[in-house]
Amino acid sequence: MAKNNNQIDKSSKFVFKASHFRELLTKQEYRCYVTNRELTPEVTFAEHIIPLRLGGTHTQENICLVHEILYRMKRYHSIDEIVEMSADVINNLGSKYGYKITKAKKR
Length: 107
Hints:
alpha+beta; globular
């Protein structure tokens, strides 16, 4: 029986397991995919590299580990959106904390 494109084959649905978590921690060298901050199991969350709302798939290849501070942001936003938002925050509040950014010229 043929399945239409809107049906999900539940028998082949990827399940993220503890072994995947440990494998990713090692692969990422215990560093956050977005910030490069150190990760420990207590502050680490698994999120999609390309968010599902942007067409990402729930596969092992599309999962990364991020620090708990970022996990909700990474769940719904692409890296491009996070960088743009971060630049806005630094441009707005950075001087209060001693930060300043400038956009590099494209090569």
